[in-house]
Amino acid sequence: MTNWINSLWRKHKAMTVVGAAVLLVAGWTLTPWPRGFAAARWDLAKGRHILLVYGLPGLGSDNYWRLLRKRYGLEERRVAGCGAPWSLIEYANGYDAASEAAAKRKFGRDIVEITFKDALKEWWRQNPDAFTQK
Fold first, then answer.
1. How far are the Cα atoms of 34, 35, 54, 85, 96 from residue 90, in angstroms, in the given order?
2. Coil vs helix vs strand at 8
3. 9 vs 121, higher pLDDT
């Protein structure tokens, strides 16, 4: 009788470990936005103001990052190109939500939007004939 109980106990422990592993993997896979948000809060607590970037650079992106760094001390961290997986995009969106909210609290306005507009204006001044046919 004790062999049967020991066998059942071993199976129960194995099923518990397997179940916990499945839940851990599922939880990790399904929570990229909160993980990104939490990672940003950790970096902000350490004094690092970073925005995560994915996709191809747009018009004036060099000016944009230069202005954000110069004016406000925000840094760019490129995490993927245009073929980013869903989980990385969600992680970056969560991270940036926390970073942008902290920047808004610190500087009192939407510095990301303001700086983007300034960078585009500067880009158009530097490239007035960019989209005209010759």
1. 9, 9, 11, 9, 10
2. helix
3. 121
